[in-house]
Amino acid sequence: MSHAYRAVGWNRQKRIYDFTLAGGVALYLVLFVAVSAALKPEATIETLLIRAFGTGAFLLLHLILAIGPLSRLDRRFLPLLYNRRHLGVTMFLLALGHGGFSIVQFHALGDLHPLVSVLVSNGRYDSLAQFPFQALGLAALLILFLMAATSHDFWLANLTPPAWKALHMLVYVAYGLVVMHVALGVLQAETQPLFPIALGVGMATLLTLHLLAGWRERARDDELTAGDGAMVEVCRASEIAEKRARVVTVAGERVAVFRYDGKISAISNVCRHQNGPLGEGRILDGCVTCPWHGFQYDPATGASPPPFDEKVATFGVRLDGDRVLVDPRPNPPGTHVEPARLVES
Ligand code: HEM
Ligand code: FES
């Protein structure tokens, strides 16, 4: 077994990342409170904390949602993608701080249970200007809680990757709820144009990045032309760097085509661990190594080296000169496929 094959490990890079993240968040909170207190001396510390935590969580949510498309557009953003879960949990803690402070401040002193109070103390669900925007924040917080609570690998394995992924796609619902929470909440009373403009710029940036990344992927997919028989021409062997892959979409499936030691193999691009992009990893010790947490797979069989038993689908592959042809029908995970051999010219 390779030393590089390990379930989610802690390494120096991750520690630096977490340290920077914690430092950045602390700095943001301190600066926000200090600058707001100087600009609005009448504001209480509770209000300033609610605002610091709320805006911090919302900014971090934008960053988290931008990382996916950014790393599809430019590989240099990939290190951010690998540690996105830590960002997510940090963002939830900030949102919890904001929601918790708000509930203690505005809903804890009455006869009703504070959470019930958030939902019913203002019954103006029929009014846009006076909508009980806190209820939208609470709904978003519940989704963020579910995501943070299931972010551990234990849940990924138990829920199965597709169910886990579906649950975590709810982040977009949470984002929509927070946008409404802010638009129907603070923005109703806000007279300065800066805040609606900032919200609009944030939404427009995310939308543009997602559209650009989707458009770029579609354009790449359209380049694929049908080859002989059932095989599909996907790229040129000379375009693939040694021990690296090209990621292509064949019949709707993301396939990683690896080049190594004069051979070409094609396997599913989706890591069994957490759906990480295998084609963005490389071959280490003869194995495709997932860039996210280091799970490894034999490129010819799609199977993890013993004693591990993860398997991904393999694809038939053939070379026609420099042209790489891939069979669009995936083989059952773990099926051995003879690699195509490059002929030295
Ligand atoms: C139990 C859940 C929540 C409650 C009760 C709640 C309550 C509030 C209240 C009372 C305000 C207005 C504060 C003010 O006037 O300054 C506010 C604003 C805001 N909330 Fe929430 N919120 C909740 C969840 C969330 C979540 C999950 C997020 C983001 C991830 C969020 C982001 C914001 C933002 C960005 C603002 C505007 C800036 C501010 O004034 O803090 N809130 N929220
Ligand atoms: S090793 Fe975690 S997603 Fe691949």
Protein architecture, described:
The model is unreliable at 1-8 (pLDDT under 50). The chain is 50% helix and 14% strand. Helix 6 runs antiparallel to helix 9 (171-184). A hairpin with a 5-residue loop joins strand 1 and strand 2 (232-236). The strands form 3 sheets. Strands 3, 4, 5, 9 and 12 form a 5-stranded antiparallel beta sheet that branches. It has a 4-stranded antiparallel beta sheet with strand order 1-2-11-10, with no helix packed on it. It has 11 helices and 12 strands. With 345 residues, it is an alpha+beta fold. It is elongated, with a radius of gyration of 24 Å. Protoporphyrin IX containing FE binds next to helix 2, helix 4, helix 6 and helix 9.
Bound molecules: protoporphyrin IX containing FE, FE2/S2 (inorganic) cluster
Low-confidence parts: 1-8
- Please bin the fraction of helical residues: 40-55%
Q: What is the string of helix and strand elements?
A: HHHHHHHHHHHEEEEEEEEEEEE
The structural class is alpha+beta
Q: Which short descriptors sum up this protein?
A:
single chain; 345 residues; alpha+beta; 5-stranded antiparallel beta sheet; 4-stranded antiparallel beta sheet; 11 helices; 50% helix; binds protoporphyrin IX containing FE; binds FE2/S2 (inorganic) cluster
